[in-house]
Please model this.
Amino acid sequence: MVRIGLDVGATKTVGLLCTESGRVLHRVRQKSAVKDPDKLYADIRNLIQKLTGESPERPAAACIGIAAFVDHATGHIHYAPNLQVENFPLGERLQRDLGMPIHIDNDVNCGVLGEARFGAARGVQHVVGLFIGTGIGAGIVTHGHLLRGARGIAAEAGHTLFIPGGRMCGCGRRGCFEAYAGGRFIRESVVRACRAHPKSRLCAEEAKNLTGVWRAMSDGDPVARAIWDKAILALRVLVTNLVTLFDPEMVLLGGTIIHELPQVADAVREFLVAQRLRGILHTIPLTQAVLGGDAVALGAACLPDQP
Ligand SMILES: [Zn+2]
Model:
């Protein structure tokens, strides 16, 4: 059986034609349309039609992981802050225009599901997954199934509370974990720190990305250290809380920051190992995602198997 899987992210869309066992038959990458729901819709529909045309048989379903708060039962987009789309009946329109089964869920939910089916957490029944990139997204798999909550927006771990009244987050609330450890906020901290400490190594050209900021810290720059210390503390607390809440067999860390700086995963692991809650926290493996840019689209293609 062949399925279509799409990853509709804030900047790019990946479309795959794949088998049930996760073998990729065809892959297309393109830019995502932002601020224009009709263009976004047309791009998604055209991509599904293109992949259908490439398929050796009629695909059984078209499945989409999208960076949005989405009702997985209907495919209705409540709100996609980074795509700047709100209240859009994506599932209903695709179903009507394409006449094939359509499945839609949040992108990080799909990414964690993909890793649980085909990647680093293959075969693991209870997984807590955290994807740390521009923002922080999470997906929780229990008994092999995604935890979605009453409205399909469960597991928004990045927007749980770290510091009451703290930094303003992109979600409109203050003090979320994402506002301390998401890539966009780390970069904003660097800009602020450079204004206050223009002589810091942090402000040199080579420290323009997060890898450079990490290097400045390793070279002894105290301003860079203060920024990373705060981000890593936030991640350590968040992962420890999630482990305590969900008792997973595995914690999975992914996203661009973890991919570019595996030292961040090491720092979180070190803290987890040092915990002795109920004598078992330190035994839970903390693993890095392995499917990279295919995780969300491959996970989306597993949505028809989810209840
Ligand atoms: Zn938030």
Q: What stands out?
A: The longest strand covers residues 12-19.
